[in-house]
Every structure is written in C-alpha cells, then in structure tokens.
Amino acid sequence: MLELVLGLVQEPEAVDPTLNFWNRLVRGEDPGALFRALLLIFVGVPLLMGGARWLRGWVGKKYTPQQGMVAGKALFYTGMLLIFISVLHQLDFSLAPLLGAAGIVGIAVGFASQTSVSNVISGFFLIAERPFEVEDVVQVGDTVGRVLSIDTLSVKLRTFDNRFVRIPNETIVKSQVTTITRFPIRRLDLNVGVAYKEDVARVRKILLAVVERNPRALMEPPAAVFFDGYGDSALELRLAVWATRENFINLKNSLLEQIKARFDDEGIEIPFPHRTLYTGVVTEPFPVRVVPEPPTPGADVPGDPDLAPEPEEASAEETGDQPRPTPPTPDPLPDDDPSGR
Hints:
- By secondary structure, the chain is α+β, with helices and mostly antiparallel strands.
- The chain is built from ten helices and eight strands.
- Among the domains are: 16-96, no CATH class; 130-179, SH3 type barrels, CATH 2.30.30; 185-266, Alpha-Beta Plaits (2-Layer Sandwich), CATH 3.30.70.
- It is 43% helix and 16% strand.
- The model is unreliable at 1-17 and 336-341 (pLDDT under 50).
C-alpha cells in the first residue's frame, strides 16, 4: 500500500532525465541503440557532406557561386543539427536539461563574444545585400584580391601575389568596398605627358590611332583624349579606353608599349623633370661657370693665358746684354750736413 501511494505521488518529470541514457549505455539494456547512434554518425555525416558539396556545385552553376555556397552551408548545418538530435533520441537522452544549459551558456557567451556576434550579423547583411560575390575582385582599403568565400564571420580573399587575407565581416560593412569586376566592361585611364613644344592636336590623333590598332580596345564606347593641364615639365594628357574586364590588364600593358614605340617613330618627346636655378630675380638666371682644376706649378695650360705660369727673367749672360751701371750716390745737400754748418 505504501509503495502504491509512493508511486502515485512520484511524478514522471521527477525522474532523472539521464536515467534511461545510463541504463542503455552502461548497463547494456538496449545495445541496438548504441549501434544506431554510431551508424547515424559514421554514415550520416559523410553522406551529408557529400550532399552539401553536390548542392553547392549545382546551385553555383545554375545561379551564382555565392548562392551555391550559401545553399551548401545551409544544408550542412541543418543536417548536422538533425543528426545530433537523432543520436540523442536513439540514446533516449532528454533534451530539456541540455536546452536549459545551452540557453544559460549562450547568454554568457553572447556577452563575452560581442565582436563575433557582430561579425555574424554583418555576414547576414553581406549575404542578403550581395555587394560582391565569390570570384569577384574587390578592394578593401589597400587590399585588392579575389573573393574565395563569404563565411559567417569573415570574408576570405586571395591577392594577386598569392597571399591569403581574412577580413572580418564587421570591417567590410563599416569600410568602403570597391567591386572591381562588378560590371562586364571597365575604362582604362592612361596618363601621358609630352613636351611643351609638341602639338596637342597631333598627339591626340596619334593616341587615337594607336587605340584603333589594338584589338583588345573596345570601339564602343569610343576612346577619348583629355587635356588635363600644364604640369611642371610636360603637357598632361589622359587617354580613356574601354575594355572588357578580362582584357583590362593586357590592354594596359600593350597600350603603354605601343604608345612609347609610336612616339619614338613620330619624334614626340616624353619629357623628364627640368630644374632651373636662379638667385631670386626672375629675369636674371643664376650664373654657372665650370672652373678647371688648378694646374701644377710649371705646367703649361694651353688656351688660358690667365692660368699660364709667369715666365722667368733671363740672366744677362743668356741675353748677351751689358749689365746696367749702378747710379752714383748724390752728394748730400747743405741742409743735410750733419754738423749743421
């Protein structure tokens, strides 16, 4: 009777939720449960990874690589959550304590990892807004590279010198991002300087002729030459040419080489910086004179009589002339008499 009363009073929720889990694993009451749990882990996880990879490739080919990546990750994370719940269900483990503990731990982790949470939220905005996609070339600050992946916490780039760069999503949301390959065509601007003596109209015709002979340059929109102004040592021109984004770099290299060769053939000078020294008066240039090294004593300096050595006086014997007589000493005047007479 006492046992019956105790059984009626005892609530099912009061039983330890890990009791069934303990009985199945440790006591071996249901060995098939452990086998089914291991089967879900070692068979379900590889199948899930393969399915996520296939879905990523299929969606990426049909739509965009970014959408394929998002679809693959969504399938993988959802499947992993279902497998985890199924394994716990096979082991007859109650999820109520686990969910309660996860809620408490989640609150603590949320306060401790505010930066990570901000990156996750920023990642959702990047995926929804789609300012760039996988395989696009972007510039973030001074970093230029191709997008490898857009993950939950960061964006991975590969620079053109084959370096791996990881940029947090929060940094990208707060910074100015330039998507270089967003549109199918791009405009190339080349700065060209010519000497002041050159004819600008003639130089413009030569530049446009060079562009017409380049197969990588687009004829529509047409190329243009702009006169930007007067530089310190040159007339500054700007050549604007349109090209597809695949031929952008090759067009730039080929045009630079062809412009240099054509200028050499036409005799057009590409100047270098000039400097003029003056003493402060604009109309009077600073005098500059090259002074040769001083000659050694006794050496002849042709062409410069000022620097030639002075000739030595010849002796009387060498010239054959009589020596000059010494003039006599004059008599002292009366006033010079030392006696005073």
